[in-house]
Amino acid sequence: MEIDSGSSHFTDFRSSDTNPNSGGCMNPMVVNAFPVGIVHVISSGGNVEGEGGLRMEPSVGLEFDSADEAREFYGLYAMRVGFKIRTGQLYRSRRDGSVSSRRFVCSKEGFQLNSRTGCPAFIRVQRRDSGKWAIDQIQKDHNHELGLEGESSSPVMQQGPPVVTKSLVEVLRRPKVKLLGQIDNGVLSPSGIINFKKQKQGGDGRQSTAEPYTGLEFNTANEAYEYYQVYAESVGFRVRIGQLFRSKNDGSITSRRFVCSKEGFQHPSRVGCGAFMRIKRKDSGSWMVDRLNKEHNHDLEVQMECQKKFSTASKKFIEEETNGMVSMELGETNNSKITKRSRENKIGTDWYPKLLEYFQTKQAEDTGFFYSVEVDNGSCRSVFWADGRSRYSCSQFGDVIILDTSYRKSNYEVPFATFVGVNHHKQPVLLGSALIANESKECFTWLFQTWFKAMSWCRPKSIIADQDMAIQQAITEVFPGTHHRFSSWQIRAKERENLRSMPIEFRYEYEKCIYESQTTVEFNTTWNSLINKYSLKGNAWLQHMYDKRESWVPLYLRGKFFAGIPIGESVESFFGTQVNGQTPVREFIPRYEQGLEQRREEERKEDFNSFNLQSFSQTKEAIEEQCKRLYTFTIFKIFQDELLQSYSYIGIKTYEEGTICRYLVRRSGSENDKHAVTFSAVNLSVNCSCQMFEFEGILCRHVLKVFKLLNIRELPSQYILPRWLRNAEYRILCGAESGVSSQELKAFMVWSLRETACKYVECGTTSVEKYKLAYEVMREGGKKLY
């Protein structure tokens, strides 16, 4: 589940059926990228002026061979105008999971960082049936000042005659990293391998570290990393773990890169620094520096203090080198030797006193507030809490939960995790919060058991969480039968790490196997062919991912209910950047309350709109009017889109026996977009091969087409999920008939009545008049109960 800050709704991933030819450009241009670093522009008779005149600007209808070429083009345009770009939201086809459109946005889009201003500038490219990508949406206006256009950063348009059919645009590319082959004088042990004990202290008390050079050897990759850390501290920069390469034969690591922390441009603090050290494993088992660049493009911190702790990346590196068998945190460096110690748990000393005061205050205000503390030998370890509203929300929307442990992406100060659900407006809703002592199976088992107890034993159908073995084992133990889907951000990170050294052809075939396989037989055949073609039978990571395919491959997930949470995309963090792994103790509770209230205010607005505003009907069909009355705004819009799209499909009966009929439903004019729909007249049951209802709980366009052919004018009750209704809080009336357990039924009744009573109390205490009215209503209602 890559969780990222973004919109307040979970993005739908169904394919867009916008007409690609409806753009406003009468004569679209096609931009092709060539390996030699030149963009070849084919214009339908346009004028190309010199460098001082007009230059290419993005416009609706402009075509590209690939989405990457579109991004490169927009990047050149941005460079000329004076802003930077980021890759924004993407949409995948519901049919095959392939990317159908992409957004490229100004780097100041959104508000997740202080440097961002919510800039609306963007382009969106959509894949056409021809395979080309065309701009279908564009916004050029920015809400911030643009940088001045420099000569060196401007793409140069070659001059030519007034009317041309071909022109060349020089593409500016980032300069290649220089490789240094020089050898500096350093302190070596007789064997030629660095010996940390022989390094001396400088006059200022710092270690006088030997300068790195190509040919320098180390006993282990860990020693090389430790050495580069100490060298970086003495020079005045910090280190991150960069790219690694694995053997195609056995999957073992053959080389590693350690880079300056300012390498790349993924964060505003990074400036694309080219300094790095690469080590390569020799046949003898030792490691040797084979590539090196000591030049930085930024100021160095000469007086930089030695870091007392290594980063989370350091811990990950040590675990990787020891095959994950050591659960340690790196401590202080002493004469360049790593001191290993158990993770220091500061929850009890730094956090619990503040949290306990907060918990006691909340319990006085909210009788439904729950908290629990894991204690070991008198010491506070993990902490879990949930207020009455979260516990009530779980009785409504606890069928699908996300365990957000994205704090582990960075060097965190607080291991803050959240349980998040999806409400009837497709907004994230909080179902509990926790501080996690460590990442052991015992810790996660305690966490899941505590959450289960707090939520009145309501068992989720599906859970999205990281793929760590400890989490997998805990889910299996506490929630047997619950389907565990791996977090997308972790899958993507592992793919980048393990497949980076593979050729481009492999990555293409790999993506095609994952996202375009329509049956399990097709997937297994394609996967095995891929493994054999590239001689990867011994690759341990790929074998592990194949064994766990039901937890991450879209083909296997589409038949499970996930409330429509997109597959393969990062899911938004509930608190965004307000509360994260770096939030200090003194700011945690105010930020937590502010973020929670902001989310609940958004939910209240959607509730108000759903009850007080009317959606616009597009077909006037009875089935549309039925769903307009029942569904929330957000869900009705999804249903309405499916209904409208059904008019573009053709249904053909291919089989009939007794009460069972089978239809082939395909899009008019397309042979690829087709699905099989099976219908039973006994109980009006239906299923489609696209499995949209199973995954999202909303009927697809293919089923709606068959209903129209059969003159079924209203949706059968079993295909209207109570969780998507406007009055989802009263879903108990439907739930009693849908086979829910008596325990779940009782839990819902308790929290539904509690929540309703709380609303009476809140409203009735605002004035004496309202108190009298609320008291009278409750008293009269009470007479009917006894």
UniProtKB/TrEMBL annotation:
Q: Name one GO molecular function term.
A: zinc ion binding
Q: Where are the transmembrane segments?
A: none
Ranges for domain SWIM-type = 663-711
What's in the keyword line of the UniProt record?
Metal-binding, Nucleus, Zinc, Zinc-finger
What does the entry give for GO biological process?
regulation of DNA-templated transcription
Record's compositionally biased regions (Polar residues): 1-10
Which residue ranges are recorded for the region named Disordered? 1-21
What subcellular locations does the record give?
A: Nucleus
Major location (coarse):
nucleus
Keyword Lipid metabolism: yes or no? no
Q: Does the keyword Nucleus apply?
A: yes
Which InterPro entries does the record associate with it?
FAR1_DNA_bnd_dom, FHY3/FAR1, MULE_transposase_dom, Znf_PMZ, Znf_SWIM
Q: Which GO terms describe its cellular component?
A: nucleus
Show the SMART domains listed in the entry.
ZnF_PMZ
Q: Which PANTHER family match?
A: PROTEIN FAR1-RELATED SEQUENCE 10-RELATED, PROTEIN FAR1-RELATED SEQUENCE 12-RELATED
Tell me the protein family, please. Answer: Belongs to the FHY3/FAR1 family.
Please explain the role this protein plays, according to its UniProt record: Putative transcription activator involved in regulating light control of development.
Record's protein name: Protein FAR1-RELATED SEQUENCE
